[in-house]
TrEMBL record:
Protein's organism: Bosea vaviloviae
Protein name, as recorded: Glutamine--fructose-6-phosphate aminotransferase
Keywords: Aminotransferase, Repeat, Transferase
Annotated transmembrane regions: none
Swiss-Prot/TrEMBL GO biological process terms: carbohydrate derivative metabolic process
GO molecular function, one term: transaminase activity
Positions of the SIS domain: 34-182, 198-331
Signal sequence interval, chain numbering: none
Length: 341
């Protein structure tokens, strides 16, 4: 674990993320065997199931599956099964459920239904003794250990890394595997970065916008959720391209913008957003790229860079919460396990 002299559980658990990813990479033999089995199935569609932070890991995974495997991906709506009682035909589908606890009844029901309908069901879980683990055909353990803070951190980073590794093995993407091998070290470096200039703009803000595109969209949504639940601040995540349209009207000098830029074809949209805000004298907090305005560790692989950006963002949000007099580990009205039906 990276030693940052930390007090809150959120900070301590964020600092454990490099070790979580290192363990995932060290135990990838079983995952490689599963990838071989899935390659033989020749599925036509992938369906991802997850809520909250796990859903954001699913957004990151969606871009990977569509760009590396070339299959369309859908996010399932568990209420179709639990409330509307309608089965969904999923033969020749890959169904991936992502959860920290694996205990929410709707995720259990959706996984059981997908398996009954003929899908190959894979669960990315921190608790491998959970009901979702029993419902799925294959279980991929995060091995993140106990997470005490309501705000999930290391398990989210682990979920994104594990999903990326699964796709890299499915696609025989050796470049991505190599980048994932570098990720623990880069996360340790990223944990040392100070993004508190963003935090200082938040206590008096009316709202905040987080923008990303492609692999950066899932992390953008995750950062927005953490701001909302930990800082009690309305925070909205948009594609960098989308923010330039209708939502742009709501951006003012009282709504800070954090823009996540990864070094691939999506970078142009992020640059265009930042240039547009600059022209209106609305300075954006730009992370990533050669002109990064926030401290950055330098670009590597766009898939893993998007994950690494969570580390300084989590640290910034935790410190901002403490500065505002909030307990980052126990946001009001929330509990660790969400039991939706």
């Amino acid at each position: 674990m990276t030693d940052l002299g930390l007090g809150s559980a959120m900070a301590q658990e964020t600092a454990e993320a490099p070790d979580v990813v290192a363990r995932i990479m060290a135990s990838r033999a079983d995952l490689a065997a599963l990838a071989v089995r899935l390659q033989r199935m020749d599925f036509d569609v992938a369906v991802i199931c997850g809520r909250g932070s796990s859903g954001h890991a699913g957004v990151h995974l969606r871009y990977l599956l569509e760009t590396r495997i070339g299959v369309p991906v859908s996010a399932t709506a568990p209420s179709v099964i639990t409330s509307l009682k309608r089965p969904v035909a999923l033969r020749r589908a890959l169904f991936i459920v992502i959860s920290q606890s694996g205990r929410s009844p709707d995720l259990v029901a959706a996984t059981m239904a997908a398996r009954r309908e003929g899908a190959a069901t894979v669960a990315i879980l921190n608790d491998i003794a959970s009901p979702v683990a029993r419902a799925a055909e294959w279980v991929l353990p995060l091995e993140a250990g106990l997470e005490r803070s309501v705000a999930a951190t290391k398990s989210v980073i682990g979920s994104m890394a594990l999903g990326a590794l699964l796709v890299a093995l499915l696609a025989d993407d050796h470049e991505l595997v190599a980048a994932l091998e570098r990720l623990p070290g880069r996360l340790s470096q990223a944990l040392q970065l100070d993004w508190d200039v963003v935090g200082r703009s938040l206590p008096m803000a009316r709202a905040a916008f987080i923008a990303g595109r492609g692999y950066g969209l899932g992390p953008a949504r995750e950062i927005a959720l953490k701001m909302a639940e930990t800082l009690r601040l309305p925070a909205l995540a948009y594609s960098a391209a989308e923010l330039l349209h209708g939502p742009r009207a709501a951006v003012t000098d009282q709504t800070p913008v954090l823009a996540l830029r990864v070094g691939d074809e999506t970078a142009e949209a992020v640059d265009a957003l930042v240039a547009n805000l600059d022209a209106s004298h609305l300075a954006a907090h730009l992370a990533g790229g050669p002109d990064s305005r926030l401290p950055w560790i330098g670009d590597d692989h766009p898939v893993t860079d998007a994950i690494a950006m969570l580390a300084p963002a989590y640290r910034m949000i935790e410190r901002t919460a403490l500065a505002m007099g909030y307990d980052p580990d126990n946001p009001p009205h929330l509990k660790k396990v969400t039991e939706t039906l």
